[in-house]
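## retry 2 of 3
previous attempt timed out at serialization; input unchanged, resubmitting
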Amino acid sequence: MKIFIDFDDTVFDTAQFKAKLKNLLFKFNITQEEFEATYLDYPQRENKKLKFYNPENQIKKLEKLKKKSLEKARKKMNLFMRNLSQFVFNDFYFFAQEFSFAELFLVSFGDSEFQKRKIIACGVKKYFKRIFITKNSKGKIIRKQIGKFSSKKEQVFFVDDRIDQLIEVRKENPKIILIRMKRPEGRFSNLKESVLFKKNFFEGRNFFEVEKIIEKISSRSQNG
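## retry succeeded, writing output
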């Protein structure tokens, strides 16, 4: 068995992270409007290229917007980024203990430098055999890894909170078992699935439910 897991809003409480980041910058006279204008909740296309969130880039944009140095805010942000363990969903630790290190893979979408900082600072790196960060296709990364597995009959799961990512991974890996992480506190929990994609995935509100789904499917496969 191999389980590929998304990071933001699945393992990591990105909504709370954003809220704390916002409060930090408010102390340096950054307004709500200025924060939202310089924060990328999800990659945006600009000049035919995808732009990903990075706190350093946000500080630079704010400096340009306010026409002054925000070096003190930058230092405070870097201090804040040193320890992000408070933003890991507690149920993830239960899940990580239920499976072996060799079974778990992290696949994150976003700015490589920033995502790496978050993953290291929140302390979850040690739970995964491999960690992948991409600005392109999660599906192609997973397909390449599946090709390296010794058993071609091995069950492979993918857990993500975004419907578009589930669809993309399924296109590249038709036999993969998809589980949507639909946390009530997630930023994209209200997104509705495509009509064509409906019922092509399982759904869990936390890692307790995801573990039960995987256990049930795995047991059914062994008994069959």
